[in-house]
From TrEMBL:
Signal peptide: none annotated. This is D-alanyl-D-alanine carboxypeptidase-like core domain-containing protein. One of its GO terms (molecular function) is peptidase activity. One of its GO terms (biological process) is proteolysis. Residues 94-216 form the D-alanyl-D-alanine carboxypeptidase-like core domain. It comes from bioreactor metagenome.
Amino acid sequence: MKKAFKKVLVFIAIVGGIFYTMRYNVTEQNPGHDNRDESSLNEKYKPVNQNNVSKTTKLILVNSEYGLSEGYKPEKLTIPNIPFANGVEQEEKHVESVIVNPLERLFNVAKDEGIVLLGNSGYRSYKSQKETYTNRVKAEGKKLADAYVAKPGFSEHQTGLCMDITNNDRYFVEGTKEADWLAENCHRFGFIIRYPYGKKNITGIEYEPWHIRYVGEEAAKYIYDNNITLEEYLNK
């Protein structure tokens, strides 16, 4: 009886060893499978600098830490079919082609809901941003300029993925129906309020209710629902 029991134990041990070996071999053939997936995800949302920019990504991070080279320019700049404020420079009417349709839909839906929006500033080249920053420093001083205007190479406008919005009164602040509508609805079209209230310590820029940035509908919804910034989203 004891011999038979020992034989059963030996048989179980052998079968268990074979099963373990098979699992080990499968794991070895696909080492770190889950880690690769996680790594790919992290890489997808990893902030980029001027030496590592994918021109097609919707999630390029541009702020005081991550900049763009002087020669960086979106692959395809297009003027969207939206109304612009008087006096907008021709260059600033352009945006990266990927945001044209979402931007036009946003403007059209706003109009259908009784909200008149005007485009005020889209793409700006490195050269244009340098002029804007320099003029602001001369007019208001460096401290105030740094609070509202990015240095050349560190402006989202150079990506072509954003648009400053205004209204007929050229008074686009929290509490106006246009600014409130934009804050509550832009995520439906893949945009975010890039510099939200109370987040300067993260974004480096004071609250700008007029500045929307395209990140795609999935990211925009998450950022809106969780009341976070693009920086926080990319580092989650």
